[in-house]
Design brief:
alpha+beta, 9 helices, 28% strand, elongated, binds 2-acetamido-2-deoxy-beta-D-glucopyranose
């Protein structure tokens, strides 16, 4: 009986380690998928209920990407990242501060914009003799650090109709660049409104929505257009070599169990090898992966994959390279034993866009190259 019991224990232990191994593979695989998306860990997501992403970011996403996240026009964005930040100061004055700690040191700031929502003047003040006002955005400076008497630096200034309402955008790229170099120098921004004559105007007349008193959809916002330097490879070769050397998984991976080898063989028999090379759907479901808490859009995307044989003779519909054509001929002539038929692989790749909440609950739009197989060919 003891040996019988021991046998069961052994069986149980084997089963446990198998499950553990599967769990290990899964977490390793998800870590590697995160690396494809340029992250070490999944962002915390939104902690306090469902936060509404800024309309500006949703509109931007819908402009650059289709419903599946695939880039509509690769030349629309200059860089590959757009970050939005909400004001952290919530001041009664027209002062703003944005926490840029989530911007990577390696990220190149291309353009930075301050988005302010101008409210309609209050009714009692409608009959003002002013039709235009001068709105100026200043960067607040640390007088001790810069050894300077200057307390602020003018970044942007514009005439705005007094009676208008809606978003006003000011370019403040230089200030944001200096903040990312020295985080401590970020004392924020100050907005001054003057009459055309140069006297300061009543803040009751010209009002901008603040994070304190107004709806979330009108909150002051900083929008950064940046490039993280990942967009180099558009050719297949460089992508493949970029991914392969840094995947120790292949080396570490335990030998596949006999069961999974049998399974693979069964699948191969089932599908046969006669199907010619073609593109098949491969849906990557972010909810299934457990990422729906931080990804706003898309819910998933069709990456497609390539499958099938590349038999002699290769027709033009197989999109063969000259090299593949020659290889297929050598294979057919059986001139050299080890030369196989060419491989069915993606020969055109598209980028996708992700709209997501980062660690600080800022909404980020990022473009990732070479994520969707556009077509397959024999190579
Ligand atoms: C900015 O945010 C980070 C992460 O949330 C935090 O650690 C840091 O203290 C913040 N900086 C300021 C100046 O508030
Ligand atoms: C600040 O400026 C004063 C006078 O212009 C100069 O004597 C002093 O060395 C400067 N200090 C620093 C830290 O640059």
């Amino acid at each position: 009986l003891a040996s019988f019991f021991f046998f069961f224990l052994l069986l149980f232990a084997m089963r446990l380690s198998e499950e553990e191994e599967e769990g290990g593979v899964r977490s390793d695989a998800i870590k590697r998928l995160l690396a494809v998306f340029g992250m070490d860990d999944p962002p915390a997501g939104v902690t306090h209920g469902r936060k509404q992403p800024p309309q500006y970011m949703l509109d931007l996403y819908n402009t650059v990407a289709d419903v599946d996240g695939v880039t509509k026009d690769p030349y629309l964005l200059e860089g590959n990242t757009v970050r939005s930040f909400f004001d952290k100061l919530h001041s009664e004055q027209v002062e703003f501060r944005f926490n840029l700690s989530t911007v990577a040191r390696t990220e190149k700031i291309l353009t930075a914009e301050l988005h302010l929502f101008k409210l309609r003047p209050q009714a009692t003040l409608m009959f003002s003799r002013h039709h235009f006002c001068q709105v100026s955005v200043y960067q607040l400076l640390d007088t001790i650090k810069t050894n300077n008497t200057q307390e602020r630096k003018l970044l942007s200034s514009r005439l705005i109709p007094v009676h208008s309402n809606g978003w006003e955008v000011f370019t403040i790229t230089q200030a944001v660049r200096s903040w990312t170099v020295d985080e401590g120098s970020n004392l924020g921004l100050h907005v001054v409104v003057r009459t055309l004559g140069g006297t300061q105007m009543d803040l009751k007349l010209i009002r901008f929505a603040s994070g304190r008193n107004h709806h979330q959809s009108k909150q002051p916002m900083l929008v950064l257009f940046t490039d993280d330097g990942r967009r180099r490879s558009t050719t297949l070769e460089s992508t493949v070599t970029a991914i392969l050397p840094q995947s120790p998984m292949a080396a570490q991976a335990p030998p596949r169990s006999a069961r999974s080898l049998d399974q693979a063989a069964a699948w191969a028999d089932e599908e046969g090898t006669s199907m010619p090379c073609k593109r098949l759907p491969l849906y990557v479901d972010f909810e299934e992966i457990g990422w729906s808490g931080w990804i706003v859009s898309p819910r998933g995307y069709n990456a497609y994959y390539c499958k099938g044989s590349c038999p002699f003779p290769l027709g033009q519909n197989m999109r063969p390279t000259n090299h593949a054509t020659v290889q297929s001929i050598i294979n057919a002539l059986k001139l050299i034993r080890s030369v196989e038929t060419p491989c069915c692989v993606p020969d055109k790749l598209f980028s996708i866009n992700l709209l997501y909440f980062d660690d600080d609950e800022n909404v980020v739009l990022k473009q990732y190259n070479d994520m969707v197989a556009g077509s397959c060919g024999c190579h």
